[in-house]
Amino acid sequence: MELELQSLNLPCDDERLIVMAGPCSAETEEQVITTARQLAAKGCHMFRAGVWKPRTKPGGFEGNGETALPWLKTVKEETGMMVATEVATPEHVELALKYGVDILWVGARTTANPFAMQALADSLCGVDVPVFVKNPVNPDLELWIGAMERINQAGVKRLAAIHRGFSSYDKKIYRNLPMWQIPIELRRRIPQLPIICDPSHIGGSRELIAPLCQQAMDLGFDGLIVESHCNPDSAWSDAKQQVTPDVLDYILSLIAIRDDKMTTEGIVALRKQIDELDNQLMELLAKRMRVCREIGQYKKEHNMTVLQTGRYNEILDKRGAQGVLCGMDPKFVKEIFESVHEESVRQQIEIINK
Ligand SMILES: C=C(O[C@@H]1C=C(C(=O)O)C=C[C@H]1O)C(=O)O
Fold first, then answer.
1. What is the rounded distance in angstroms from the CA atom of residue 132 to the CA atom of residue 84?
2. CA of 352 to the centre of ligand 1 (A)
3. Is pLDDT at 15 greater than 60 in this prediction?
4. Which stretches make up the Chorismate mutase domain (predicted)?
5. Is the ipTM of this complex over 0.95?
6. Any ligand 1 atom below 6 A from CB of 307
7. For residue 273, what are the domain limits?
């Protein structure tokens, strides 16, 4: 199904960048208002704060719920910023709308659950409010698109996707792995859908916010949602990944915003070179496959197995090392040769069984 989309029509500083900032959780009225005032003073147009917090384990701070909604209303009235919060159930939607919340977002755990998404969609039927849908916790693009389709089918046309990274057992650098190839594929599939990057949840730490924001801009994403707190170290949730409005302003001032629509003569000439090289790559691959088929024929005549792990390992090691010398990521080189090997084995199996 095709998404039927309308422009988000949100205020932003220049033609492209949407920045939504605010604390992970609305903790107290004072914390909300203080943070909002500081953000508004820095020129922020959209304020975010979690009111209902889905926590991994019980016992943590699960948000102030309805009590915090009038605080958001005050932010709106006092600063003129639009306000946004996360909704996970139809009751959340009803209450958020009742208190005049301007933008709703759906969290990663909710996106992963089609029943919850359908219930949310049903509660949004006939409501014209922008809805931002975070990627599901697992790296499943179809599930992400499906969640947005449900909301869209309910008549919500002002939709955006939030890229917040994907859960992983491996938490060495990122809290949630960015797996950029997934939002990139989303952009390819639905080019008109705005994509907002959430560097706070991808990175899980302050130091990673700036480079992640830049990476999102380098990819031509449309905006950022960043956690900002007037006193991050004392935050009741996500303390390590929140920054003060001052720091956020500094980070944003350093970000280079790229123009994704520019095509110049220079790039056209360079792309011609790429086309020529891709042609050569394809011809070389076809040549390599011809030799592989010959090897397949030889193996058939000599009753040898197609898979030769010793040789396969030799290739992976040799080309991996060569890749490093050529300035390429060894993982990338490994994946290329794994794919080449897979196709080579497939073609040889066809020959050996003829
Ligand atoms: C081509 C061969 O068969 C298989 C495919 C390989 C390849 O494409 O390079 C390597 C080892 C084998 O698993 C071979 O045995 O050399």
1. 10
2. 13
3. no
4. 261-352
5. yes
6. yes
7. 265-352
